[in-house]
Amino acid sequence: MKQSVKLFLVASVYTASVLSLMAQDDPLKTPANVAVAPDEAIKTESGLSSIVITEGTGKEKPEARDTVTVHYTGWKSSDGSMFDSSVKRGEPTSFPLNAVIPGWTEGLQLMVAGEKRRFWIPENLAYGPEQEGSPRPGGQLVFDVELISFEEAAPPISAPEGAAQTASGISYVVTAEGAGEKPTDENLVQFHFTFFDPKGTPVQSSKDMGDAQTAPLSKLPPFFSEVLKELTPGGKADVYVPGNVLGAPDPMVKAELELLSVKEAIPAPAIPEDVAATPEDAQKTESGLAYKVLTKGEGGDKPVAASNVTVHYSGWETSGEMFDSSVTRGETTSFPLGNVIPGWTEGLQLMSKGDKFRFWIPEGLAYGPKVEGSGRPGGLLVFDVELVDFQ
Predict the structure, then answer these.
(1) What is the pLDDT of residues 290-331, one digit of tens each?
(2) How many other CB atoms sit within 10 Å of the CB of residue 348?
(3) CATH number attached to the domain at 164-264
(4) Which CATH number describes the domain made up of 2-151?
């Protein structure tokens, strides 16, 4: 923290007239120096620049894992347009400091409670360069940030001594023994999972979703499959997963797995012959969604975006790799139609109960381009979808 102390001392020598003038600014008005940081701004080795607008009253500074509560307004340096503001919304916001852009993670560690700063954050510490059509602001960004308060993070999670390890380095401790046979890659498993934060509070659980998860064991990520292979039905285990595996900011994440049942896997549907590209005879909508009718149902009403739908489906990438299927799980799935990718929201509104369609969904209506290691399918996706019911 020596560098932070030095920077704070430099900031404290600003003239009272500059501080007073800036403190009186309309908090939503575009700063006069939005384009370029002034000469007197403090600049860190990373390229982050800042000036103190209002001195704080606290003494301690937050660390990267702490949760901060702030008021802020952000502008684009390129044109001075405001793109976000908690001040405008009338309520502060809270978040773990290591879960935001690097410029914020670094910058707020320079501040004390009650302090207000203006930051000039270069694009490499923000969201990257400006991109046409992207909903995120690009290029250098300017933020006025008031640090209202912060809460120290709980100690990081670590695997207990003696924990077993899987082939990929996942640690686990069996907490309840089950009975029967352990599952293999050829089996269909039904299980519950719960993820916890460092304080031990559940943050995501299949039990809260209403139903246990069912999937072919071979299709689950290693932090699930490798541990479930070591359990028998009725067995439970505490699992310790490196945060970077899950894309989480914490160094380690704890989860609980409970294996409920093991069944014979259902054969995967055949790969569509036209999976590699959209065929010329497919029908297309204005958005770029393409489809074919595979089976006609009973006709009649169609769902709307606000409907809850029940479907059977299988999804493939253009390589022919199947990435998800309710068919292989042996059970339909239900969800609000407005809460899924745009290609599904649009496409299922073309269907009646009993219809089965094949959709070619471009990346702009799906999950975006293919990104290695993301865990999500990318690019053009192909789905066979049967509309079982809707309300």
Answers:
(1) 999 999 998 899 999 999 999 999 999 999 999 999 998 888
(2) 24
(3) 3.10.50.40
(4) 3.10.50.40
